[in-house]
Design goal:
Elements (H helix, E strand, L loop, with lengths): L9 E2 L6 E2 L3 E3 L15 H12 L4 E3 L3 E2 L11 E2 L6 H11 L5 E7 L13 E3 L7 H4 L5 E3 L2 H21 L3 E6 L4 H6 L14 H19 L5 E6 L10 H14 L3 E5 L15 H6 L4 H7 L7 E4 L5 H10 L4 E4 L1 H5 L3 H6 L15 H6 L1 H15 L10 H12 L10
Parallel strand pairs: 3-4, 3-14, 4-7, 5-6, 5-7, 7-10, 8-9, 10-11, 11-12, 12-13, 13-14
Antiparallel strand pairs: 1-2
Helix pairs in contact: 1-2, 1-14, 2-4, 4-6, 6-7, 14-15
Length: 409
C-alpha cells in the first residue's frame, strides 16, 4: 500500500468529492467586507491567490448568518439570495486550480465587541471573565423562539452557499462563539432542553447540523470546527468533545476540524503549549490521536504545523487526515506548493512589539497577520519582515486605543 503523505488525494466517504492533496487553508478572519458586509474584488483576489497556491481545500473566514450578529466590523454576511452574484464571484475565484472552497458559517453569540452589534445574546446571561468583559456588552439569554430562528438562519446561509458555487460549508462550533457557548457548561446554564447534560447542550449544534444537511442536500459536504477543550474551569472538556464528535459522526458529518481554547484561553494560538507539543508541532495532536482510536470521521488538525516531516508523520500515524494551515498562508500564500516541492520555507519570526501588555494579549499577532492579508488582497506581496511595532502604530492610527481587544478567527 502506498504511504500516505501530504501529497496524497482524499475522497470523502459516500460523496463524489476528491481533494487533490491533504492541505487545508484553515479559516482566518479576513476583515475585508464592504461597509454593507459583502465580499468584493479584494476578497476575490485574495482567494484566487490562495487557490493558485496549491491547497486542496480553502475554508473561508467567518461568514455570519445575520447582519445583526457580527463578530467584528469587517465580517461578511450571507442572508439573502439578492447577494448571490457577489458570492458566485467569490466561489469562482476560490475554486480555481482544482481547489475546493468551503464557507465557514457562524454566529458570534456574546463575542461581539462593543459598538459592533446592538446587543449580545448567549445561551445564558453569564459574563466573561472580568479582564475580558469590559470589551463586550453584557449578554442576555436567548428565548426558545430565537434559538429556533438562529437554527433556520444557519440552514438558509448554507443553502445559499451551495447555490453560489461553494463546494461545502463548515459550521463553526469552536473558539467561544455561540455554538461553543451552548456546548460549554460554564457559559450554558440553562435548565430547559437546551442546557444541563452534554446531550442537551449538544442539542443546538445537532439541530443546526440537521437543518443545514436538509437545506443544502445530502451530497453537499458539511463539516464542523470544534474545540478539543475550552481549557477553562467548568468548561467544555475533552470527554465532552469526543461525545459530540461521535454523535456528529452518527449524524453523517463529512469532516471535523480540531482546535481548542477560547479568547479567554487562547490555546488556539499555541499559548501554554508544552515543550513536547512544540517539538511535535501540532498543538492538539495528542487529542487527535485519542479521538481517532474511536472514530473514523475525517479530521483536519490545525495549529502549530510548520514542517513537511511533522505533517507527514501526523498523517501516517492516522491522527489526522488533513493538515490545517492558517498563519503561514497569510505570509506565503503558496505555502502548500512550497511544501509539496520541498522548497525551503523561511521561518516566520514571532510577532512581538517588546511591550509585554500588548504581546501577552496576542492582539499584535492577529493584527500583524491581518495586515498581511490586506496586502495580499490588493495584489501585493506579504511583508514577513514588517516590524510589529510599526504594525501596532498602524493599528492605533486606524482604530484608536480601544483596539486593545481581541479579534477572532
Amino acid at each position: 500500500m502506498k504511504e500516505t503523505t501530504a501529497a496524497s488525494p482524499f475522497t470523502l466517504h459516500n460523496k463524489n468529492v476528491t481533494f487533490k492533496n491533504r492541505f487545508v487553508k484553515s479559516a482566518m478572519s479576513e476583515g475585508l467586507a464592504t461597509k454593507v458586509h459583502l465580499p468584493d474584488a479584494d476578497i476575490f483576489r485574495l482567494y484566487h491567490t490562495w487557490a493558485k497556491g496549491g491547497a486542496g481545500l480553502l475554508i473561508t473566514g467567518n461568514v455570519m448568518i445575520n447582519q445583526q450578529a457580527l463578530g467584528e466590523p469587517g465580517n461578511v454576511v450571507l442572508e439573502s439570495e439578492k447577494q448571490l452574484g457577489l458570492f458566485r464571484a467569490w466561489a469562482r475565484a476560490g475554486t480555481h486550480n482544482d481547489t475546493h472552497l468551503w464557507m465557514q458559517i457562524n454566529h458570534p453569540g456574546k463575542q461581539v465587541p462593543k459598538g459592533v452589534a446592538r446587543e449580545a445574546v448567549a445561551p445564558s446571561a453569564v459574563p466573561f471573565e472580568s479582564g475580558i468583559q469590559r470589551f463586550f456588552p453584557h449578554a442576555r439569554a436567548l428565548t426558545h423562539p430565537e434559538i429556533e430562528k438562529i437554527i433556520r438562519q444557519f440552514a438558509h446561509t448554507a443553502s445559499l452557499a451551495r447555490r453560489a458555487g461553494f463546494t461545502g460549508v463548515q459550521i463553526h462550533a469552536a473558539h467561544g462563539y455561540l455554538i461553543s457557548q451552548f456546548l460549554s457548561p460554564r457559559h450554558n446554564q440553562r435548565t430547559d432542553e437546551w442546557g444541563g447534560s452534554i446531550k442537551n447542550r449538544f442539542r443546538f449544534l445537532r439541530e443546526i447540523f440537521n437543518a443545514v444537511r436538509e437545506a443544502a442536500g445530502p451530497e453537499f459536504p458539511v463539516g464542523v470546527k470544534i474545540n478539543s477543550a475550552d481549557f477553562m474551569k467548568a468548561g467544555f472538556s475533552e470527554e465532552e468533545s469526543q461525545y459530540v464528535i461521535k454523535e456528529l459522526e452518527r449524524l453523517g458529518v463529512d469532516m471535523i476540524e480540531i482546535s481548542g481554547g477560547t479568547y479567554e484561553r487562547p490555546e488556539l494560538f499555541g499559548k501554554n503549549a508544552s515543550a513536547s507539543t512544540l517539538k511535535r508541532e501540532a498543538y492538539f495532536l495528542e487529542y487527535a490521536e485519542s479521538l481517532k482510536q474511536t472514530t473514523e470521521v475525517p479530521v483536519i488538525l490545525t495549529g502549530g504545523f510548520r514542517t513537511r516531516p511533522a505533517m507527514d508523520s501526523a498523517l501516517q500515524s492516522g491522527a489526522a487526515d488533513f493538515i490545517g494551515l492558517a498563519r503561514p498562508m497569510a505570509v506565503y500564500p503558496d505555502y502548500p506548493d512550497r511544501l509539496l516541492s520541498e522548497a525551503p520555507v523561511p521561518r516566520i519570526a514571532p510577532v512581538k512589539t517588546g511591550l509585554p501588555f500588548i504581546d501577552n494579549l496576542g492582539i499584535m499577532e492577529l493584527a500583524w497577520y491581518n495586515q498581511q492579508l490586506a496586502r495580499l488582497s490588493k495584489g501585493r506581496k506579504a511583508a514577513p519582515g514588517f516590524p510589529p511595532v510599526f504594525s501596532l502604530a498602524l493599528l492605533l492610527m486606524k482604530n484608536g486605543i480601544n483596539v486593545i481587544r481581541q479579534r477572532r478567527g
